[in-house]
Design brief:
By secondary structure, this protein is an alpha+beta fold. The protein has 3 domains: 3-84 and 154-344, 2-Layer Sandwich (BirA Bifunctional Protein, domain 2); 88-150, Herpes Virus-1; 370-462, Rossmann fold (3-Layer(aba) Sandwich), CATH 3.40.50.800. The chain has helices at residues 8-18, 40-59, 75-81, 83-86, 103-111, 113-116, 121-130, 174-178, 181-188, 233-253, 301-310, 336-347, 381-395, 408-418, 428-433, 454-462, and strands at residues 22-24, 36-38, 64-66, 88-93, 100-102, 147-150, 154-157, 165-168, 194-203, 218-228, 261-265, 277-285, 288-299, 316-317, 324-325, 328-335, 348-353, 356-361, 372-376, 400-402, 422-426, 435-440, 446-450. The strands form 7 sheets. Strands 3-9-10-16-13-12-11 form a 7-stranded mixed sheet. 31% of the residues are buried. The structure holds zinc ion (ZN). Zinc ion binds at residues 94, 96-97, 99, 135, 137-138, 140.
């Protein structure tokens, strides 16, 4: 079970297409680079991850509320948040091979992070020339001048493009929470510390997307803004560490191997424009360690900015002291698509059954898109009828599907590849003894269970 699997990433991508988890976007038109569509099983898996997040961080806690804000926001929001001015990368083109590169990354990779920090566009160009830094694709040092490339998608709201106002697709969900801070306070009477979380799509025009669903220009985030009383460093640090631990535990609960997870504290140099303390949780992907999420202490940056730009008083009134102040925030932000990729990679396994290699997705039962499959042994009306009745009953509690096509062994393989924990077969004996065979995905053990005890059996196995 722990054996190394060669080309795991390629195998997972192939399985995703073959079994209906994830398809290339706009596939029949030759695709659209870097877009992916979640299909019948992928969309259910994604929903399971989101439901698990929502329950764990919102509804199971007393100090959290959820929200779902609009993707399109007043452009002033992005001025206040610093995204219009600061959310950009120094973009350069290789004149020889047309490769698009980030000037700061070229410098960073060759000369270290310090060499790139705080440099102007002009300086970036000079450093690259002076040190004869090469294009990663063709090896020449012949670039255009560096220019600011803002990662926000810009579009127009209104009927006539010329007169309509410019508007952005949000690059993060967080600002939807900050701009609603006062409304939530006034309608919910929340007391500090409390948090607001939401799941939603965000858009970033990445210069170098890739690695399947790891880095895409359209992606889904789950973000929390946790508001706390401005306190001493020790007090803030305590809450910050609590959030780091909560997320570590959450990933482990998803079925992720702890040995493949690590924390990485950001160097002060690479912190985002708003953050004074940030840690990532990283996962060891087949292509190397990559960021799964960030936990950032943002101070009061966002609320200060929104107060300034909107002119509205966003202060919190302490119910005990009547003191008025802007809370500080700790922001855990994760990518749902990345998390889904990790769940797929963690679940993918190969073993040997009857001398043949079997591909099996060992999802946690809670994550599995289909919990139970029901088969009639043969396509005979008397067996089909019993199987359909059982299916209808199971569907009241669990996602389940029916399959009657092909040999029973083939049907098992299909369910193994989508990670279905239990398969139920109705055979001729079932008509006599009112029992069915239940097969376990992981142990391959088959048990005979009375039909009227199936419900209890499955609830014990599948309910956490
Ligand atoms: Zn080049």
């Amino acid at each position: 079970m722990t054996k190394q699997i060669e080309n795991k990433m390629d195998k997972v991508i192939a399985l995703c297409k073959r079994r209906g988890f994830i398809f290339p976007g706009s596939d029949i038109y030759g695709g659209l680079a870097n877009t992916w569509d979640y299909a019948q099983y992928g969309s259910q898996l994604k929903k399971n991850i989101k439901d698990y997040w929502w329950k764990y961080f919102i509804t199971d806690r007393e100090d959290m509320v959820g929200m779902d804000s609009a993707i399109l926001m007043n452009p002033k929001v992005w001025e206040a948040s610093g995204h219009v001015g600061g959310f950009s990368d120094p973009l350069m083109d290789c004149k020889n091979c047309q490769e698009r590169v980030r000037g700061d990354q070229i410098i960073e990779n060759a000369l270290g992070i310090e060499a790139a920090v705080g440099k102007s566009l002009k300086q970036i160009g000079e450093i690259i020339k002076e040190n004869n830094l090469k294009c990663p694709k063709c090896g020449k040092c012949d670039f255009t001048e560096a220019r600011e490339f803002n990662m926000m998608f810009k579009t127009h709201q209104g009927v006539v493009e010329e007169t309509a106002s410019a508007i952005y697709l949000r690059p993060e969900t967080a600002q939807g929470i900050f701009v609603n801070f006062k409304n939530i306070l006034q309608s919910g009477r929340n007391k500090l510390p409390f948090g607001v979380g939401q799941i939603g799509k965000s858009f970033r025009n990445e210069i170098t997307p890739g690695n399947f669903i790891f880095r895409t220009r359209e992606f889904e985030q789950a973000e929390i803004e946790y508001f706390v009383k401005p306190g001493t460093k020790a007090e803030i640090l305590k809450t910050y560490e609590e959030w780091k631990k909560a997320y570590w535990d959450w990933y482990v609960g998803l079925g992720v191997d702890e040995k493949k997870l690590r924390f990485r504290d950001h160097d002060p140099d690479e912190l985002s424009h708003y953050s004074t303390m940030t840690a990532d949780i990283e996962y060891e992907f087949p292509f190397g360690w990559g960021e799964l999420m960030g936990i950032a202490y943002r101070g009061d940056f966002d609320l200060v900015q929104h107060e300034k730009v909107s002119g509205k008083d966003l202060k919190y009134t302490d119910p005990e002291t009547n003191e008025k102040y802007l809370p500080h925030t700790i922001e855990p932000a994760l990518g749902i698509d990345r998390t889904l990729l990790v769940v797929l990679l963690a679940a993918y396994d190969e073993d040997e059954v009857n001398g043949e290699t079997r591909v099996v997705m060992r999802f946690n039962p809670e994550m599995a898109p289909v919990k139970v499959a029901v088969f009639p042994l043969m396509k005979k009306p008397e067996l089909q009828k019993v199987a359909k009745t059982i299916l209808a009953d199971i569907k009241k509690d669990f996602t389940a599907e029916y399959d009657e096509s092909g040999a029973i062994g083939k049907r098992y393989r299909r369910q193994d590849e989508i990670g279905t924990p239990y398969c139920i077969t109705v055979d001729y004996e079932s008509l006599e003894d009112k029992s069915v065979t239940v097969r376990n995905r992981d142990t391959l053990e088959q048990e005979r269970i009375k039909i009227d005890e199936l419900n209890k059996y499955l609830k014990e196995k599948l309910d956490k």
